[in-house]
Write a structure and sequence with these properties.
heterodimer; A: mainly beta; seven-stranded mixed beta sheet; four-stranded antiparallel beta sheet; 49% strand; globular; B: mainly beta
């Protein structure tokens, strides 16, 4: 039982490049989330999904797209990376019957030059 | 919109008790959760209040007062390993979290 895993752990991009971050969970959770965390700040919700095939915008969705083609996977895409997207990205999942707990992945550190 | 306020940094001595406050300006949330995050690590769940009052989980307790728009996390018998950042989070529909900016706790010998 790996919980929530994220790929890659670290990535350096040049401005304008694209990339996809992969999140996978093996807990059969319905809900999944993507956050970004900047130095000295809390986590801000980018996008979330309440089930396979569904996605919705969070607090800071601009510049990102997501897809949830399979229940266990949630992908975060950056079509044209900008230096302002340098951050640590966390994926999380949650059960419909346990509202207080989100299980987080280890994070992906992204540097955009 | 939501507004969550936490102190940015707190320092305490090993073995002491420390309280981290969280004040908010919002309504319509289901509950207040607390998460711990060590440097370079992922946030992990500590405590949750769906209703007003005190919830105790070992050395950690959390309190919520909806009438005062206020909550706190209480850490007792502080240990060096408790040095970390602590985040309060309001919970909304679909288990969406809105996080505070975090409190860095420094535990000194």
């Amino acid at each position: 039982n790996a919980g929530v895993t994220q790929t890659p752990k670290f990535r350096v991009l040049k401005t304008g490049q694209s990339m996809t971050l992969l999140c996978a969970q093996d807990m059969n959770h319905e809900y999944m989330y993507w956050y970004r965390q900047d130095p000295g700040m809390g986590l801000r919700l980018i996008h979330y999904s309440v089930g396979e095939g569904t996605t919705a915008k969070g607090e800071v969705p601009d510049g990102y797209n997501v897809s949830r083609l399979k229940k266990q996977n949630f992908l975060l895409g950056l079509e044209s990376a900008a230096p302002s997207q340098t951050s640590v990205y966390f994926c999380a999942s949650s059960s419909t019957v346990q509202e207080e707990t989100q299980y987080f992945g280890p994070g992906t550190r992204l540097l955009v030059l | 919109g939501q507004s969550l306020e936490q102190p940015s940094e707190v320092t305490a001595v090993e073995g002491a008790i420390v309280q981290i406050n969280c004040t908010y300006q919002t309504s319509g949330f289901y509950g207040l959760s607390w998460y711990q995050q060590h440097d370079g690590g992922a946030p992990t769940f500590l405590s949750y209040n769906a209703l007003d009052g005190l919830e105790e989980t070992g050395r950690f307790s959390s309190f919520l007062s909806r009438s005062d728009s206020y909550g706190y996390l209480l850490l007792q018998e502080l240990q060096m390993k408790d040095s970390a950042s602590y985040f309060c989070a309001l919970i909304y529909n679909f288990n969406k979290f809105y996080f505070g900016s975090g409190t860095k706790l420094n535990v000194k010998p």
